[in-house]
From TrEMBL:
This is ribonuclease T2. It comes from the Eukaryota. GO terms for biological process: RNA catabolic process. PROSITE patterns: RNASE_T2_1, RNASE_T2_2.
């Protein structure tokens, strides 16, 4: 399984609790209220209904992967042709730091990563989940179209897709005020916020078609050509309206033949992009404002032509 921490900022300690602010479970009819922009001066629990404007993790990262295989092709788990895949929708704090596994009563991740809430031996242990997989939560809602979409676009490498969705939900989504259980009011149905989060992550994902944007600039997967980070970064920034974070894996440039002798120790295989946003009101409504990545906006090599954007393996996409 492939998981990554936010590149910038410090990991803050998160207290496990059933509700981030002790919101009431009544009357959160949010469209009656003025949507407040997350990370603005008014976006604090004493000034707004935390169910209706995000007051906990106000910097939203819509994140995607570019993988060339899943490792589970034999079980039909393949990558979507001509599309990057959905990684998650993360609630960072406004300064780019973040916390995780904020509500252990909603812990559905069979392989918690990290294993404690602060990632250290002295943190609260995150108990591995052993119940029905999170994909089954959609069934009582009849959301089979959503499930099919997720199995097409929200793809894990090295583990079943549903384990990855559970990881994204329990590690990250439990840290939003706006997806907190009390926000769903007195008629809350079990796992309603899980479905809502999945739909919202997809809503954000659909706004940032990385493959299409790069393709339009002539940047296509290739095992024979390389690209410059500048061209990739500026293309995506142009379309998104702010500079995203671009993540690379693979060897460091100056350990490769092409980069031999240079001082560029950035990584050379493009694999991730994180689009940063503030949001008016509930993230669910999708009223985003693009913002630049906080801190460093890449770990990739910056030398001209240093980046591989590899084609998928044969049989790994459909
Ligand atoms: C919601 O209901 C609670 C309890 O009845 C009340 O105290 C609060 O003022 C109400 N909030 C709004 C925004 O109507
Ligand atoms: C946990 O350990 C870290 C590093 O050893 C330390 O900085 C931190 O204060 C400790 N936290 C608690 C809650 O004991
Ligand atoms: C399943 O998880 C629960 C809650 O963490 C735990 O009490 C139980 O022992 C686990 N069961 C198995 C078979 O691991
Ligand atoms: C880098 O160049 C040196 C000197 O020409 C050579 O010995 C070495 O094998 C090269 N390393 C790589 C990774 O190509
Ligand atoms: C790569 O570059 C870094 C400086 O950016 C240098 O410290 C390191 O020794 C270099 N490694 C190689 C293999 O050249
Ligand atoms: C975002 O980054 C771009 C490019 O570096 C810069 O021109 C712009 O001013 C930045 N925007 C903000 C709000 O800092
Ligand atoms: C392209 O290269 C990547 C990385 O080496 C490899 O995984 C993939 O199978 C290759 N794709 C094709 C179509 O050759």
């Amino acid at each position: 399984m492939k998981y990554q921490f936010a590149a910038s900022g410090v990991l803050l300690l998160g207290a496990a609790s059933a509700s981030l602010y002790g919101e009431s479970n009544l009357n959160h009819t949010c469209f009656l209220q003025k949507p407040v922009l997350s990370c603005s001066a008014d976006a604090i629990p004493s000034k707004v209904d935390s169910c209706c404007s995000e007051t906990f993790g106000g910097l939203l990262l819509s994140t995607q992967f570019w993988d060339t295989y899943t490792g589970l092709e034999s079980q039909g788990q393949v990558l979507p042709k001509d599309s990057w895949t959905l990684h998650g929708l993360w609630p960072d704090f406004c300064d780019g730091s973040f916390t995780q596994y904020c509500d252990l009563t909603r812990q559905y991740d069979p392989f918690p990563s990290p294993k404690t809430t602060n990632g250290l031996p002295n943190g609260t242990v995150v108990p591995p989940y052993n119940g029905s997989n999170i994909g089954t939560f959609l069934e009582p809602f009849g959301k089979f179209d959503l499930l099919a979409y997720m199995n097409k676009y929200w793809i894990s490498q090295g583990s079943p897709n549903y384990d990855f969705w559970a990881h994204e939900f329990s590690k990250h989504a439990t840290c939003y005020s706006t997806f907190d259980v009390p926000c769903y009011g007195p008629e809350y149905r079990q796992h309603e916020e899980v479905v809502d989060f999945f739909e919202t992550a997809i809503k954000f994902y659909k706004k940032v078609p990385t493959f299409r944007w790069l393709h339009g600039a002539g940047i296509k997967p290739s095992n024979t050509t390389t690209y410059s980070l500048d061209a990739i970064q500026s293309t995506l920034a142009h379309h998104h309206g702010a500079v995203p974070y671009i993540g690379c894996s693979g060897p460091r440039y100056n350990t490769t033949a092409a980069g031999n002798g240079t001082m560029d120790r950035g990584f050379t295989v493009i694999s991730e992009v994180w689009y940063y946003n503030h949001v008016y009101g509930r993230p669910q409504d999708g009223h985003t404002v693009a913002v630049n990545a906080t801190g460093s906006n890449t770990n990739c090599a910056t030398s001209p032509g240093a980046i591989h954007y590899y084609e998928r393996s044969k049989g790994s996409e459909a």
